[in-house]
TrEMBL record:
Belongs to the binding-protein-dependent transport system permease family. This is ABC transporter permease. The chain crosses the membrane at residues 39-61, 107-133, 153-180, 271-293. InterPro entries: BP-dependent_transpt_permease, MetI-like, MetI-like_sf, OppC_N.
Length: 307
């Protein structure tokens, strides 16, 4: 007699649990990220700033460089003398503040991304070399890292900018050559853990070259912590650029840097406080969004959260 049920499906064998459904790594990451409020808040905040900055021509018809002295220091729309034509007001040269804010976001994001790219390449290369080869290579690179850690970033950046000159490219290169140490430290420690793993030993046993092992076995397995470091260093670079621009040694006029906007408005801070409040709030929002995203990414990708 057949034991098949009326529906045609065989009953589950007694004493056997159903096989659990395995989700893909991307699905597990998405599920954990959606449950992390800090990660979601940072992602939304950063996404809004990215959209507004990259799509600046879609959100304002004003030229951020166009000057009109007759319209200088028009207050924002929530003031009595404000106007919807310049709803965030104008600066001391009559330039639309909303337009300069949006285009200034481009400058800050570009400096942050370019600095992280340059410093990430330098630091990761040094860290992987020190962790993978060890011995004298590790000793020499460790000494270089210690020398870099002994140098005050702000003072060195100020000195180099004063000696070499100030420009957008100079700021990116100087910051990129000063912010690689965290990448090197993290890459070195994680590479040391992976260099003696079984899959690396197996790759050596079948005759894989050192370059192939580093690029196919080591780098993919240390990528997560490096991404977290990159987000935090991006916020650090943006703040340093704003500080240099505020001191007059960073991005130069007429480029609409947020640090430069704060510097240009500091003489009006008691009579027109919005000229420093608006770019200051934008800078805080950008750095806060990047930090929340980085902290959330660290928590989401932590081994303790993997099930």
């Amino acid at each position: 007699m057949s034991t098949t049920s009326a529906s045609g499906a065989a009953p589950a064998a007694a004493g056997f649990d159903p096989v659990p459904v395995r989700r893909s790594p991307l699905a597990r990451f998405t599920k954990r990220a959606a449950r992390h409020p800090g990660f979601m808040a940072g992602a939304v905040l950063l996404a809004v700033i990215l959209v507004l900055s990259i799509g600046a021509p879609l959100f304002t018809a004003h030229d951020p460089y166009a000057q009109d002295i007759s319209r200088r220091l028009i207050p924002p729309v929530w003031h009595d003398k404000g106007s919807w034509e310049h709803w965030l007001g104008t600066d001391k040269l009559g330039r639309d503040y909303f337009a300069r804010l949006l285009y200034g976001g481009r400058i800050s994001l570009m400096i942050g991304a370019a600095t992280v790219l340059l410093s990430g390449v330098i630091g990761t290369a040094l860290g992987v070399a020190a962790g993978f080869f060890g011995g004298r290579v590790d000793m020499v690179i460790g000494y270089v890292i210690n020398v870099r850690l002994a140098l005050p970033v702000v003072l060195v950046a100020l000195a180099v900018a004063a000696l070499v000159g100030t420009s957008l490219n100079t700021v990116i290169v100087v910051l990129g050559l000063l912010l690689w140490d965290r990448f090197a430290v993290v890459a070195r420690s994680t590479t040391q853990q992976i260099a003696h793993a079984d899959f690396v030993a197996a790759a050596r046993a079948i005759g894989c070259s050192t370059r192939l092992i580093v690029f196919s076995e080591v780098l993919p397995n240390i990528l997560n912590p490096l991404i977290v470091v990159a987000t935090l260093e991006m916020a650090h670079a943006i703040l340093l650029e704003a500080a240099l621009s505020f001191l007059g040694l960073g991005v130069q006029p007429p480029l609409p840097s947020w640090g430069l906007m704060i510097s240009e408005g500091k003489q009006y801070m008691f009579f027109s406080p919005w000229v420093i409040t608006i770019p200051g709030v934008a800078l805080v929002a950008l750095v806060l969004g990047i930090n929340l995203l980085g902290d959330g990414l660290r928590d989401v990708t932590a081994p303790d959260n993997r099930s």
